[in-house]
Amino acid sequence: MELIINSELLKKCGGGSSEYWFSYNNYSVINIRDLDTGNKPDDIGLTAYYVSIGLIPFITISNEEIIRAFVRKKASAKLKSIFDRISSDKFIEYFWKYYNAYPELESGLDEFASEYSRNKVAEWCEGNNVNYRFAD
């Protein structure tokens, strides 16, 4: 079996959400809200139950992580220095303020985000012994 890395799968790791888990049983990524926990023994925690049925948390990639990586790749040393000092709670807001003002940030974000996410999912697969292939 192989996990197919495509745009649909990449949506499941975006936004830093931890609601998606990978199943070794059928190589799918499922939303844990859709999982029937009626068979869970009372003496086991929910996370331990998920692991016991062959699930592990799927990778989460936050928007901030992607944009920080984009800045590291595209920005000048001066701009990188400015962004390094911005706290997480204000980072996205400040990025968009600088985005239109600095030509080096104006292009390629969508392509970068897609490639970054594809690479991170592939790294996650390799680290968790999950066979994978890219579909698109």
Number of helices in the DSSP assignment: 6
Strand content: 5-15%
Q: Spell the H/E element sequence.
A: EHEEHEHHHHE
- The value of Rg in angstroms is 18 Å
Provide the low-confidence segments as ranges: none
Number of strands: 5
Summarize the structure in words:
- The protein is α+β, with helices and mostly antiparallel strands and 136 residues long.
- 46% of the residues lie in helices and 12% in strands.
- It contains six helices and five strands, in the order βαββαβααααβ.
- The protein has a three-stranded antiparallel sheet with strand order 3-2-4.
- α3 packs across α6.
- The mean pLDDT is 91.
Architecture blueprint of SSEs:
Elements: E1 3-5, H1 7-11, E2 20-23, E3 28-31, H2 46-52, E4 55-57, H3 63-74, H4 77-84, H5 88-99, H6 109-127, E5 132-134
Parallel strand pairs: 1-5
Antiparallel strand pairs: 2-3, 2-4
Helix pairs in contact: 3-6
